[in-house]
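call fold(seq) -> tokens
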Amino acid sequence: MREVTGNCIVVYQRYLLDLLTRYKMLDMVAFVDPSMIGAIRYGDGHAQSQHIKDRLLTAKPNQIFLLPYNADVYFMDPLKRRLPTGEWRSIVDTAIAMYNAHKGKKGRSSVLWKNLAGIPPQPSSTECGYFVMRYMRDIIEDKDLSFVRKWERRSNYMYSQEDIDVIRNEWAKFVVKSYM
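ret:
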């Protein structure tokens, strides 16, 4: 249960892309590369916002984007902190404002952030990559995308080690299959 890199998450996103294809959900869910927006990143906050905006420009109507960054925008924090403040919130808010300006959209002046407080919390600070991958998997497995209702209220639901091991095994099998 060591900390995983953004590259590991990207590999798992590729596995999930295959699931989305099989489920015929490509128009419903898409991904943003965490290496372009994560804490260890290329460029500054503006570059991160630009990358998110560019990715949003490829969106289908009502498509959900999964931005695995540890954080309408739904925020899932497995360490059970409060809604995001500071740099990350500013990056996403700026990206959405840039997107709206590019598209000529007028509307609310700020993003409405919603904390999905019912997500399973991680036990310590090293498992976040596994939890992010598990959240993405649970969202994709939820064919009607009702994850907001499921996770909007606090709950006592916890992932077991077996739940996390499913992710680890899927990742490993996908990597082995991809390189054979």
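The CA atoms of residues 21 and 27 lie 9 Å apart.
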